[in-house]
């Protein structure tokens, strides 16, 4: 098997080229370069060193991945016939995808690699910026990175920012987290005699003339808490501070039990914003729900039982395990099959040896009897305990209603309670059959009543100022006015 030697051309000009690398280039019989657009290659050409570039491959594809894959495929075909050298900018193992693809090919036994040195662009970048990487830094590819990957509290270096378009894409991605006037530094040809540094506000990043294939964009770490409010770790620090020794007395005293009602209230308030299709308030209310999650996580950490990472691991593991059609090789053709797989996986998770868990286990909700009723009936329906048509549901409701009416006349408080419970249970089942959330319906009815009664109260206060001064018919007239003013949606 012939050998493919990969060598790094360094990060800057010929003066910075390592002597060992220079000698190997002189001795090589056949040299291929990913791109000719590198200052070292101009000097090598004047000394009679010949090389062949893959620049023409870039013109054939719209994305970089197929470019790199074609380069690798071509190199593999060449090395079948003879030993060759492949030269890349910087160091072969730093931000060079073609080399990573070749390493994968080596693992598969397709090629024998010899990877030589070459200064990466990182050392001259750190030197130009006068920063110590021990503080923590991220190196990302400007063509593929996501704002979700960025840690605003670390040094951020963005490579592959080679023209105005790529700079514009980087700018838009960064503005998902950073303010538009956050300072960023454009570093060009670091370590060479042509080294240039220019610091601009983020919104001007794609207007800088210095951007070329030797450009790296540097984003300094955020040191002001108020500038890092889009960072998850900032919110976690806020909650930890609130619960800490110098924090808020109220937050310090909270327990899982004391926060239960707040969790329920915040979820209901969010559901209301969904009904109102109010995006701005959705953001606010989801933040309040998230606050409850982080508070419970912090309490768990303070007490030494669990922390936020435990929660993330548990839910991530569950989502991967319950979606084998996404994260594994299971095939599904419909939502019904997805649901069937989900239930099958849940039963397997809850299995206790050979004794299956009761079907209704885990469906009780202490904070909502309506939701518990819905959960029970949904679970029973999934195993076939269900009317064959909606007629059966309505007949059951009529039966339970008549039984309640009978107990109103002839029964005791206990039997009336029992029969009225059956009526409510059947109503929840009707709601489930027609894909209505009984919980949401009740919340909507409560809001509607509060709104209309508020109007009635306002009329009373504007008039005789005492409910007792009005007949029921007069109060009911106010109620009807409220209905006309707000419609059925209020």
Key terms:
single chain; 490 residues; alpha/beta; Cobalt-precorrin-4 Transmethylase, domain 1; Methyltransferase, Cobalt-precorrin-4 Transmethylase, Domain 2; Helix Hairpins; 5 domains; five-stranded parallel beta sheet; five-stranded mixed beta sheet; 10% strand
The gist of it:
By secondary structure, the chain is α/β, with parallel strands linked by helices.
Please provide a written account of the structure.
Strand 2 (31-33), helix 2 (39-46) and strand 3 form a beta-alpha-beta unit. This protein folds into 5 domains: 3-119, Cobalt-precorrin-4 Transmethylase, domain 1, CATH 3.40.1010; 123-227, 2-Layer Sandwich (Methyltransferase, Cobalt-precorrin-4 Transmethylase, Domain 2); 232-306, MazG-like (Helix Hairpins), CATH 1.10.287; 363-436, Helix Hairpins (Orthogonal Bundle); 439-486. By secondary structure, it is of the alpha/beta class. Strands 3-2-4-1-5 form a 5-stranded parallel β-sheet, covered by helices on one side. The chain has a 5-stranded mixed β-sheet with strand order 6-7-10-8-9, covered by helices on one side. The chain is built from 19 helices and 10 strands.
Topology summary:
Blueprint: E1 3-8, H1 19-27, E2 31-33, H2 39-46, E3 52-53, H3 55-58, H4 64-79, E4 84-88, H5 97-107, E5 112-115, H6 122-129, E6 137-141, E7 155-159, H7 164-174, E8 183-188, E9 196-201, E10 215-219, H8 232-243, H9 249-253, H10 260-275, H11 279-302, H12 308-322, H13 324-327, H14 335-350, H15 369-382, H16 390-410, H17 413-433, H18 438-462, H19 472-486
Parallel strand pairs: 1-4, 1-5, 2-3, 2-4, 6-7
Antiparallel strand pairs: 7-10, 8-9, 8-10
